[in-house]
C-alpha cells in the first residue's frame, strides 16, 4: 500500500502543479498549504476504509458564520465519501479530501478556500482530482460569480478568453487547439492577494498534463 500512496502523492504533485510556471505544488497562485498556526481555521483529519480526509474547520468568532462554513464543508465531504463508497461496491477505489488555503485571514471580508477531492481506482494509470470552490461573505453566505460580476466589469467570456491566451502563453501552459470557452467556469477562488482566480480543471481547456489552470482576473471587488 505504501508504494500506491507514494505514487498517488507524486501524481497529485504533478497534476496540481503543472499549471504554474514555478511548478508550485498548490492548485494555483494566491493559494498556500494549510498552516496549523492559522487563527481562522484548523484542520480535522481522519481515515476510514479507503477514505483519507483532511478538511478545514472554521474558528470564526461569529457563531452563525462558523456554522455555515463548517456545514458546507461537511455536506460536500459527506457527498464525496458516499460517492467513493458506491464506487467500492464495483471496484476498489481510494479517496482523498484535502484543502487549499486562499483568503482566509481572521479579518478578511471574504473567506475563500478550495476543497480538493481525489479518487484512485485500484491499478488505474493515475488519480483523478477535482476542486470545489468555497467562498463566503462576512455572514457565511456563499459568494458567487454573479455577485462579483456586479462590480467587476472584466468578468466576461471575451476577457476570460483573452486572459487565457495571454497568461497561458506567458507561463508556457499547453492548451487544446480549440480552447475557447463559451461561458465562465463555475470554479473560482479569491487568493491571498485579493485577486479573483478562475480555475479550469484538467481536460477543460488543456490536457491532463497541464493540470489545473488558474486565470488571474484582477482584484476582487465586492
TrEMBL record:
Residues 1-23 form the signal peptide. The keyword Lyase does not apply. It comes from Dialister succinatiphilus YIT 11850. InterPro entries: DUF3298, PdaC/RsiV-like_sf. Keywords: Signal. This is DUF3298 domain-containing protein. Pfam families: DUF3298 (PF11738). Residues 178-216 form the DUF3298 domain.
Amino acid at each position: 500500500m505504501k508504494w500506491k500512496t507514494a505514487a498517488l502523492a507524486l501524481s497529485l504533485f504533478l497534476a496540481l502543479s503543472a499549471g504554474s510556471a514555478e511548478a508550485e505544488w498548490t492548485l494555483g497562485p494566491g493559494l498556500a498549504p494549510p498552516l496549523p498556526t492559522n487563527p481562522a481555521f484548523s484542520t480535522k483529519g481522519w481515515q476510514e476504509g479507503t477514505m483519507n480526509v483532511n478538511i478545514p474547520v472554521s474558528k470564526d468568532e461569529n457563531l452563525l458564520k462558523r456554522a455555515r462554513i463548517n456545514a458546507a464543508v461537511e455536506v460536500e465531504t459527506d457527498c464525496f465519501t458516499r460517492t467513493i463508497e458506491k464506487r467500492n461496491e464495483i471496484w476498489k477505489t481510494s479517496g482523498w479530501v484535502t484543502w487549499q488555503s486562499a483568503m482566509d485571514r481572521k479579518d478578511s471580508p471574504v473567506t475563500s478556500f478550495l476543497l480538493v477531492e481525489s479518487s484512485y481506482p485500484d491499478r488505474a494509470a493515475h488519480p483523478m482530482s477535482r476542486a470545489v470552490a468555497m467562498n463566503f461573505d462576512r455572514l457565511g453566505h456563499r459568494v458567487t460569480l454573479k455577485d462579483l460580476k456586479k462590480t467587476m466589469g472584466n468578468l466576461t467570456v471575451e476577457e476570460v478568453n483573452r486572459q487565457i491566451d495571454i497568461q497561458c502563453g506567458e507561463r508556457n501552459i499547453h492548451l487544446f487547439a480549440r480552447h475557447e470557452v463559451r461561458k465562465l467556469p463555475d470554479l473560482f477562488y479569491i487568493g491571498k492577494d485579493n485577486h479573483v482566480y478562475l480555475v479550469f480543471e484538467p481536460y477543460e481547456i488543456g490536457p491532463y498534463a497541464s493540470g489545473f489552470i488558474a486565470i488571474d482576473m484582477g482584484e476582487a471587488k465586492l
